[in-house]
Amino acid sequence: MTTLKHLPRSLISVLNYANRATVGRVLPSLLTVSLLGVSATANAGDFEQSPDFQLVRQTLIQQHGLTALEVDQALSEAHRLDWVVNLMNKPGESKEWYDYAPMFLRRATIQKGMRFADNYAHYLQDAEARYGVPQAVILGILGVETGYGSNQGKVSTLDALATLAFNYPRRADYFRNELGEFLLLCREQGWSPQSVMGSYAGALGFPQFMPSNIRKYALDFDHDGHIDFTRSPADSIGSIAHYLAEKGWQLDQPIGLRARFESSQGEDGNVRTSNDEAVIAKDLTQPIRYGVLSMKGLIPRTGYVDPAQPVNGIRLMGDSGPLYWITYPNFQVITTYNRSRMYAMAVWQLGTAVQNGDTDMQDLP
Q1: What does the alpha-carbon distance between residue 110 and residue 207 come to, in Å, rounded to a whole number?
Q2: Which alpha helices (DSSP H) does 17-156 contain, by range?
Q3: Distance from C-alpha of 265 to C-alpha of 278, rounded to nearest angstrom
Q4: What is the mean pLDDT of the chain?
């Protein structure tokens, strides 16, 4: 329903001079003539002067099926958050592992995760049984993303996504799509876009799903009739498992194992490979047979890897030098949640510590 607050000020001024009976007769005609113009004349907030304003506006309308009124009302109420762009340019993943890991691998976080696991054991077990995703991975994601729901974000999702859609050229197309998905999500859920809060990148709730992923993968896992990522750990647990399964999680397959790098020698006794770059994956979606990596000097610290198994070698910087792992395709699946290898490692290690009750972190993978 269109109300006065949705109309341009010039039209409101006309209506304010009319009596109620006149408004009742005139308003429908005025709306017919002018609502198409409302979108073009309404206050467009902080983004009206952007050279991309009309492009973004038309994209939201044409590609997402939003009405002009929905788009213009949202954009008129969105505010540019310059600090969001600054943070996006300096993400936590820009740190080295020795600085990154302590942000998540903490005794207090592990203990919180253990309590969370006890409280929601039924849903964790159900999610693993239904989708094949280990409870430890679900617990790791919830811990890294929001500390088991304690830090879901207090930033206006509308402001964050609009800021990044207009002012973050490196991923503008992605965030313009997410802005459209967010407005559709608000329509579907009956939310006011201005009322939704999340992370500075536009992610929402316990699992920090982006709006497009909420619309694709979110589940009503507690069967209460609606999906609620803000207050329902059950919905979050089931949705994470569903997401990872859809991204290719391999049932009953490992994530990886610790490794070491050794300079390899050829049959003539000469050093064949002394540079570890030869065993570090450039693209986790393109694994190679372990037999190739073993010949170049990447060796598991314990255990056995089938020479024909597709794997990747990864390296993270520890306090005392490089650390190595041989990772299976499931590690790459975790990176579909966040492309950072450090993120995936933190998820794996935190979840393992929570599941094992390893508060001293003495047996991390």
Answers
A1: 17
A2: 20-41, 53-64, 68-77, 82-88, 97-100, 107-119, 121-131, 135-146
A3: 14
A4: 88
Helices 135-146, 107-119: axis angle to 10 degrees equals 120
Helices 341-356 and 107-119 cross at an angle (nearest 10°) of 60
Alpha carbons 199 and 151: distance in angstroms, whole number: 9
Q: Which of 336, 290, 294 is nearest to 311 (CA)?
A: 290
Which residue in 140, 157, 163, 1 sits closest to 79, CA to CA?
A: 163
Active site residue 267: no
Active-site residue identified among 48, 77, 96, 145: 145
Q: Going by DSSP bridges, is the β-strand pair 271-273/288-289 parallel, antiparallel, or unpaired?
A: unpaired
pLDDT top residue among 176 and 4: 176
pLDDT in tens, 112-148: 999 999 999 999 999 999 999 999 999 999 999 999 9
pLDDT tens-digit map of 341-357: 999 999 999 999 999 99
User: 180 and 62 in contact (C-beta within 8 Å)?
Assistant: no
